[in-house]
């Protein structure tokens, strides 16, 4: 249920119906709609972490393949939640944590390819973040209607473009 609709459109009754339990059971277990959403996000986060830990560090193709797999599974949900951020209350902090986790993952996976000069490293991380963000996937996959393989190729090309260090900054 939480995956199919914007957060603000989901009710506790919807959650209960989707789970095949009573409204009171949902309240007893999660205390609120926010609690149920937090539990769902925690499960999704575990799945994402499992996918991301499989990435071969320094391998742009594999990293993007894993990201596209993740986005194919939960990208639409991520987009809906990000678009609802101002209405999510305390759950909005989870979006900030997810962005920070994505950035830390990028830094870990691409560490050998990133500059050591702090300003250049930050610029490279910002570019990698833009190249691999769920919004980039949405643009390519949903808005431009590219196939999954073409989306993967395009995002990989973007990442490779960021990682090329032959041209000095001016």
TrEMBL record:
Keyword Methyltransferase: no
Ranges of the DNA-binding region feature: 11-30
Domain of life: Bacteria
Tagged with keyword Secreted: no
Keyword vocabulary terms for this entry: DNA-binding
GO molecular function, one term: DNA binding
Xref: InterPro entries: Homeodomain-like_sf, HTH_TetR
HTH tetR-type domain location: 1-48
Name the UniProt record assigns to this protein: TetR family transcriptional regulator
The species this protein was found in: Parafrankia soli
């Amino acid at each position: 249920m939480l995956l199919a609709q914007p957060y603000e459109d989901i009710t506790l009754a919807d959650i209960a119906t989707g789970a095949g339990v009573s409204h009171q059971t949902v309240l007893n277990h999660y205390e609120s709609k926010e609690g149920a959403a937090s539990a769902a996000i925690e499960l999704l986060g575990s799945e994402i972490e499992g996918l991301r830990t499989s990435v071969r560090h320094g391998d742009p193709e594999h990293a993007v393949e894993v990201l596209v797999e993740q986005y194919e599974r939960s990208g639409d949900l991520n987009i809906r939640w990000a678009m609802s951020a101002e209405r999510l209350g305390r759950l909005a902090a989870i979006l900030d944590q997810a962005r920070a986790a994505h950035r830390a993952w990028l830094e870990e996976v691409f560490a050998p390819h990133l500059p050591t000069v702090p300003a250049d490293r930050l610029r490279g991380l910002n570019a990698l973040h833009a190249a691999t963000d769920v919004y980039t996937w949405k643009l390519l996959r949903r808005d431009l209607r590219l196939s999954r393989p073409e989306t993967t190729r395009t995002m990989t090309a973007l990442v490779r473009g960021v990682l090329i260090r032959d041209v000095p900054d001016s």
